[in-house]
Amino acid sequence: MGVSQEYESETMSTRDVESGYASGCSSESNIPEVSFTKPHLKFLNQQLQNLEPEDVLRWCITTLPSLYQTTAFGLTGLVTVDMLSRLQSPWSSRVDLIFLDTLHHFDETLALVDRVQKRYPHTNLHIYKPQGVENAREFAEKHGERLWEKNEELYDWVAKVEPAQRAYSDLQVSAVLTGRRRSQGGKRGDLDIIEVDEAGLIKVNPLANWSFKQVQDYIRAYNVPYNELLDRGYKSVGDWHSTSPIKEGEDERAGRWKGRKKEECGIHNSRSKYAQFLKEQELKTQEQAVQDALGSGLKIEA
Predict the structure, then answer these.
(1) What span, in angstroms and rounded, lies between the C-alpha atoms of 36 and 195?
(2) Is the dihedral of CA 77, 79, 82, 87 positive or negative?
(3) pLDDT at position 30, please?
(4) pLDDT for 34-68, tens place per residue?
(5) Do residues 177 and 70 touch, judged by C-beta distance below 8 A?
(6) Which residues have a Cβ under 8 Å from the Cβ of 3 and sit 6 or more positions away?
(7) What is the pTM of this model?
(8) Phi and psi at residue 197, in whole multiples of 5°?
(9) Quick check: is 265 catalytic?
(10) How many of the other CB atoms lie within 10 Å of CB of 169?
């Protein structure tokens, strides 16, 4: 005679209390989310630092629940996708992708997305766009023409940060794989393998130790599809309005936001920065409303 699910659950719960330990059979409320103390995080980074990217990925798959990969289909992200597809393991190595379609990507990037889906048909892709719009025309109608020039931080928020946070919430993401590397320079120069952001999201940079040449060699060795713009002088590709080819000897990301004091697109900046920015935006809106009311001669009630 089979044991009823209700009885079995109750027995497991009782067993957990008696033993003083929680197991995979424990009720979900008894098991905390994955978290690391600072000493533990430091230890893990010291250990993972010495592993090959494939071994880091194996560790991630066995250790981190609700693991996804965020990607704009740059070379490093494509290497990660391919490595995951080749992992020989007794467990599932499938990690879903999250792509933030800012509505301002190059046509070549969007064509690459289609090629990647055909090459890796068993990898699920979740596409998130700016809220309430489906194309660049609708984006301009809602937020104004060339928002990236008029209010760069607002553009980053509506095109990238808010969609990313919405994806993490919708999909209940606990950890993400990124394509950042130390050799990309700037703030990425002292990148750890594992990071934890202010909201507790775990970010893993499996190829943090690799150079651009190592990434490029892998792409060639395994015939991984890549963005055609890389054959035209580009090395790091983002939105069309903030990406340009680079010269020989320039840093890999020198073509991003050229001439501006900017190194990151927003999703890798601190969340508190955007919380403060949104608060300031709200105050400006309220102040403008007051000024408009005064200008039109309306009476403002206290």
Answers:
(1) 10
(2) negative
(3) 47
(4) 888 999 999 999 999 999 999 999 999 999 999 99
(5) yes
(6) 11
(7) 0.78
(8) -85, 180
(9) yes
(10) 9
